[in-house]
Write a structure and sequence with these properties.
The chain is of the alpha+beta class and about 170 residues long. About 30% of the residues lie in helices and about 30% in strands. It has a seven-stranded antiparallel β-sheet with strand order 1-2-3-7-6-5-4, sandwiched between helices. A hairpin with a 7-residue loop joins strand 2 and strand 3. Helix 1 packs across helix 2. The longest helix has 15 residues.
């Protein structure tokens, strides 16, 4: 499977957890104009550990003017059951889904996920999340993409970049 690295998507190396965490820290700090709080390296390390456990094939930072950076993760899953393991956050509810086809004709489902009502009521911090699942009609495999932003600032702009990347999914060898 391949995707086009559209403008605004900066891939992160997946050679090791340390390399992934270091590059995530650098990119997020750069996106914030060099001003990153001390939590950025910790969050980058946690994200790197998660994506390596999930055997992600793509990890990237999505950047757009006037938007906070968002994390993009892509995983190739062999079965629908693997989707359960790919959930980034278990206390999020699906708010809306949209189904369609990519330009190459692959079935795709987008799901906007929001934090649970309990977390909202408690005033806890939350993130914006968009997931897309592209199915390969010729083989039992799915490409699962997740876009996540901890602030939601500029969410529409980074979501548009996400949509362009997902639309470029190609399962042909």
């Amino acid at each position: 499977m391949k995707v086009d690295l559209v403008a605004g998507v900066t891939p992160v190396p997946l050679g090791s957890v340390d390399a992934t965490a270091a590059e995530l820290t650098r990119l997020i700090t750069e996106c914030r104009g060099g001003d990153a709080d001390l939590g950025v390296p910790v969050a980058a390390r946690e994200a790197a550990e998660i994506v390596h456990r999930a055997s992600a094939g793509l990890v990237a930072v999505v950047r757009q003017p006037k938007a906070d950076p968002a994390l993009l993760v892509g995983v190739l899953a062999a079965t629908a059951a693997a989707l359960v393991e790919l959930s980034v956050e278990s206390d999020m509810d699906i708010r809306e889904t949209v189904e369609g086809r990519t330009p190459l004709g692959y079935p795709v489902t987008f799901a906007e996920r929001v934090v649970s009502a309990e977390r909202l009521k408690a005033g806890e911090p939350f993130d914006c999340q968009l997931q897309a699942v592209v199915a390969d009609p010729d083989r039992p495999r799915l490409a699962v993409f997740t876009l996540s932003s901890t602030t939601g600032r500029g969410w529409l702009a980074v979501s548009a970049v996400f949509g362009r990347l997902v639309a470029s999914t190609d399962f042909r060898d």
